[in-house]
Amino acid sequence: MSRPEDTLPPDLFYNDHESQKYTTSSRIQAIQTAMTQRALSLLALPYPSLILDIGCGSGLSGESLTASNHTWIGMDISASMLAIALDRETAGDLFLADVGQGVPFRPGTFDAAISISAIQWLCNADSSDVSAAGRLNRFFEGLYAALKRGGKAVLQFYPKNEVQRGMITGAAIRAGFGAGLLEDDPGTKNVKVYLVLTVGAGAEEGGADDVTNVVRGLEGVDIIDERRKGRGDRRSGGGEGKKGSKGWILRKKEQGRNKGKVVKADSKYTGRKRRPAF
């Protein structure tokens, strides 16, 4: 059985008929509510917060945010889904936008972000002039900027395979996030994957808001956090973290390739110091 994202782009797949069918399904309503509550429990927000709902659809996840006294803003690429959300008089503000083109909000706007069953769509490139890697990079870089320092995000998604799981997690780490992967019901057809992200603050002190403490001790958790290693290199001013070193140059070139830029090929001369010319 083919997955929805393998058939059509999301703005075409979720037309008026599919959007109405999705929203009125009691099964989907129950699943969406349960996953949103799970995301909120992982966020562990101590007070009512401003939350970005990525791929908000018709507002099913937003209902749980409103019930928990949070203020939220929703983004979705499907005009049909957002029209239903308006008809249902959801409490959040709504934006028609493609998150694969970025997250168009002022830096540091949101306390937290959630996404339910949406970001796996970014792994598909719908035309020859875009790439899945580029869309994922733009999304995570935009999300990182839009969150406050110390902000958190929980993104539930359905990876098709390990390649997609790696693409999504890798893009989050490159953007600067500390990342933890949590699986509910692992090894079953009902498995649900949650990517738990933290923006920078408290990483080195192991602060209460850091991702490694948010999900530490939970079953089925794999923590991937390379922020401390990178900061240590920069503080020491040596090794591969030093600006202008071979490691630094290779890392910058790899970042350029991931963004689809044309980068010179690596060679034995990459990063080699030139002798003074007389």
From TrEMBL:
Q: What keywords are assigned to this protein?
A: Cytoplasm, Methyltransferase, Nucleus, S-adenosyl-L-methionine, Transferase
The record's listing under Pfam families reads: Methyltransf_11 (PF08241), WBS_methylT (PF12589)
GO terms classed as biological process: rRNA (guanine-N7)-methylation
Region of interest called Disordered, as start-end residue ranges on this chain: 226-278
Q: Which residues form the Methyltransferase type domain?
A: 52-154
* Bias-annotated ranges (Basic and acidic residues): 226-243, 251-269
Q: What residue stretch is flagged as signal peptide?
A: none
InterPro entries per the record?
A: Bud23-like (IPR039769), Bud23_C (IPR022238), Methyltransf_11 (IPR013216), SAM-dependent_MTases_sf (IPR029063)
Domain (18S rRNA (guanine(1575)-N(7))-methyltransferase Bud23 C-terminal): residue spans on this chain: 217-275
* Protein name stated in the entry: Methyltransferase
Q: Which organism is it from?
A: Tuber borchii
